[in-house]
Amino acid sequence: MVSEFRVPFLADCFPTRNSEPAHDQPQPGKPQIYGTQFRQVEGIWILDQIDEKAVTDEERAKWHVPPLADSKKRAEQMNRKK
Q1: What's the number of domains the chain is made of?
Q2: Is 28 helix (H, G, I), strand (E, B) or coil?
Q3: 9-44, pLDDT tens digit by residue?
Q4: Residue 82 to residues 38, 40, 77: CA-CA distances in angstroms?
Q5: What is the CA radius of gyration of the chain?
Q6: Sheet holding 2-5: strands in order across?
Q7: Which pLDDT band, with edges at 50, 70 and 90, does 3 fall under?
Q8: 47: part of which helix (H) or strand (E)?
Q9: Most buried among 8, 17, 47, 70, using CB within 10 Å?
């Protein structure tokens, strides 16, 4: 079973590589770039596939997105709440 956790207030806040508004749904077959999308696989929350080199933590900070390490910690915290 796969569940998804999306951060609704972030959905349209960030420019994509093409300077168009990002949407909550990543493009099929392409990894996310900001690290805001999580999904649950077999009961375990994971950070959805991400291109870790596409965006730096400095760029994330400009858009008020937490550093990638914080997003990874968030997945761990979500799993501890069980």
Answers
A1: 1
A2: coil
A3: 454 455 555 544 454 456 778 899 999 999 999 999
A4: 16, 13, 10
A5: 13
A6: 2-5, 38-41, 44-47
A7: low
A8: strand 44-47
A9: 47
